Amino acid sequence: MATSNDIKKGMCIEFSNDIFKVIEFMHVKPGKGPAFVRTKMKSVTNGKVLDNTFSAGHKIDEVKVITRKFQYLYEDDNGYHFMNNDDFSQIYLDKDMIENAQFMKAGEEVTIILKDEDESPLSAEIPPTVYLEVTEADPGVKGNTATNALKNAIVETGARVMVPLFIEAGDKIKVNTEDGSYLERVK
Known about the structure:
It contains no helices and 16 strands. By secondary structure, the chain is an all-beta fold.
């Protein structure tokens, strides 16, 4: 069992009947009173971010996790199916275990976080940016170019992305998967 003094970025701990990954931490030693550790943690099961303060020496339950690269295969009514690139075994994840899954396309590599003791899947992390082809784009309105005007576009995975007026169907674009924003057109 670890203490709050052992907390570091990337560490997974069990807290409030859930497993959290430490995103940020700061050891604070005020001039008056006991030291404490201020943390920002993200749930690996549902993605919620939580701020918490642990007193110095507070006992925490560290959870050993492993990450593996899997290839996204397909989606069905219940969730998503992935294949391990090393031994070709398949794994299944529920729809609520993956944030921004609308940007995943078949064949893409995804990092899946597994609990070390029984290798049960906890969550999946898609790459921070993806390259997708625009399948549909609203027509650009003439005379609307004085400002940074955006229009709706649908990419190959079915997700909606706001793009600049010059993007047409068939163009490849780079998309930020965290907020679904357009980054650039890809040649």
